Amino acid sequence: MGSTAKRWKRFTPLFLLMIPGLAYLIVNNYLPMFGMIIAFKDVNFSKGILGSDWIGFKNFEYLFKTADAYIITRNTILYNGAFIVINTIGAVSLAILLNEIRKKFFQRFYQSIVILPHLISMVIVSYLVYAMLSSETGLINKSILPLLGVDPIAWYSNKEYWPYILTIVNIWKGIGFLSVVYLASIISIDPEYYEAATIDGASKWHQIRSITFPLITPVITMMTLLAIGRIFHSDFGLFYQVPMDSGVLSETTNVIDTYVYRALMNLGDIGMSSAAGVYQSVVGFVLVILSNYAVRKFSKDNALF
Amino acid sequence: MTHDSKWVRWLVHSVLMGFSIACIIPFVLLIMSSISSEDSIIMNGYSFWPDQFSSKAYAYLWDHWGELGRAYGVTVFITVFGTAASLAMTSMLAYPMSRQDIPLKNFWALLVFFTLLFNGGLVPTYLIYTQVFEIKNTIWALLVPGLLMNGFNVLLVRTFFMTSVPPALIEAAYIDGAGEIKTFIKIVLPLSAPIMATIGLFEAILYWNDWFNGMTYVTNPKLFSIQNILNRIITDIQFLSNNSNLSSTASSKMSELPSTSVRMAIAVVGVLPILIAYPFFQKYFIKGITIGAVK
Predict the structure, then answer these.
(1) Alpha-carbon distance A285 to B117, whole Å?
(2) How far is A282 from chain B (nearest CA, A)?
(3) β-bridge mates for residue A42, sequence order
(4) B127 → closest Cβ in A24, A49, A265
(5) B220-258 tens-digit pLDDT
(6) Which sequence ranges are marked TM in the entry (chain B) (predicted)?
(7) Quick one: fold of B55-293?
(8) A68-72, A206-210, A299-303 — which one is most confidently predicted on average?
């Protein structure tokens, strides 16, 4: 008992150090978790948030009666599902190619260039996309389509193109970053495997297939499962900034995050937006737990908990 | 055999070069459009080599430097101050958690870790920041929500402290009579420069690029960062072009907006510091990605 008291006394200054960080976690993370109760209330600011009437699942009933609920769920899952598949295949291939580069200068050069898009904000990305796609002045309509003899396309008012556009932008921005992550795990493979394989006369392609690929499969599996755990959360900037918040495109660009944002900020609909937010948080949480369970089954070391 | 591997090497280089060009080319287009004359953009669209060059867009920025310079000041301020505050808070929380003998060790870890798994979402966060803390239209709105500290970084730094600072060193300092805080500042932090540099770099980029907080919590143009100015220009153009048939004032408003080349010039000014600084920090950035990956 005495030693416990002594330990607390010794640690008092350290506990003081923790205060700002803990206070921030409470304000920024824990209070909003408790704030989720507003989804079950009819918020009335004159009564205050705590004093507003409880209405049970009414907000959720309204939400799931709208066509939006289906559209945003579908878009969120389809986009993020496609991103997981395409980005993983692309990033692993890119990492394998990067690993083939032996000259230090080129290694640096390629790595630096491919992660460059990751460094810029989505607002800037939306300017870059606009320079390509603007109907009157865009590079594609003005320079590329005429070369092919195709009529200009009004990109920003035709929703059917956006699944492709957003996927391409996502690849462009994220794949280099992800490939550097995979490259790190390829580099950590013991070079002796390759030396032995070369002595046995195995071709490059053969080595990639039977050494590199099997040895990085655990990392790929883990990263993929973690991404699946986050499939309900989208890159807000990609879906909000790149289509320039355009209503015409919403059927193919609206995801849960953008829906919640617009319902709250543009419509001031606290009931609907908080219900959609709770739906996202809760389903998202269940998915994280399930995917972690899957990771644990697969490899205990790589599980989050 | 050698012939074959040479062929493969060419293929690898050309794929990588192709992808690298795809990564860079939008930036080239951006920069070239900012030095195009307005007429050549209207006639031929954005292009890699305009018919007519013009420095008018930059001259315009120079003349309107008041507003833009202010936004630049805001961006620099939040980047510097936010990164410093973030590093301080992260390390101050992570260090006690890294100590084997701290009371309630698992509780602190769980408290931080849980924030990575679950969050309340935008609506309660927004209401708490605006209704309870009333940060709307204050500089705090740009600094605090979401950006100041995150659990992932705390756990990363904690792991670094646990693995790279020998406990014997801390114990020796304690026996020599150094206080816990003195030990933290004089011994632990200097040993942790690599992780601090990495996290500081990521935080700085986060602050420099952030437009979300400004868009959500700020309506006063005096508090706009450079990203918010860029964001506002797009919103105005969208709004006016959607409503241009509604009012005749819309078209006159449209002509007051910065021209296409000016917009691109502002965007260039927004990314240029990152592009210029990038060669100097890219090594650390790549290292940082790798650290984050192995958690």
Answers:
(1) 6
(2) 8
(3) A53
(4) A49
(5) 999 999 999 999 888 877 666 665 555 555 555 555 566
(6) 12-35, 71-95, 107-127, 139-161, 187-208, 262-281
(7) MetI-like fold (1.10.3720)
(8) A68-72
Q: What is the ipTM of this complex?
A: 0.91
Instruction: Decide if A270 and B127 are in contact by the 8 Å CB cutoff.
Output: yes
Residue of B nearest to A122 (CA): B209
Within 13 Å, how many C-alpha atoms sit on residue B73's CB side?
A: 10
Q: Cβ neighbours of residue B93 under 8 Å, at least 6 residues apart?
A: A17, A18, A20, A21, A22, B112, B149, B154
Domain locations in chain B? 55-293
Burial of B214 (0-12, 13-18, 19+ CB in 10 A): buried
Residue matched to tokens 């978790």: A33
Q: Which residue has the tokens 């580099």?
A: A187
Q: Residues A41, A21: contact at Cβ < 8 Å?
A: no
Indicate the range of A119-133, A180-194, B117-131, B202-216 predicted with least confidence: A180-194
CATH fold label, A52-302: MetI-like fold (1.10.3720)
Kindly list the domain boundaries of chain A, sorted by start residue: 52-302
* Identity at B289, one-letter amino acid code: I
- Label residue A203 by pLDDT band (50, 70, 90): confident
Q: What is the pLDDT of residues A136-176, one digit of tens each?
A: 888 999 888 988 989 999 999 899 999 999 999 999 999 99
State the count of interchain CB pairs (< 8 A) between A and B.
Answer: 274
In 3D space, the residue among A302, A128, A263 whose CA is nearest the CA of residue B126 turns out to be A263
Q: Token pair for residue B281?
A: 């920090």
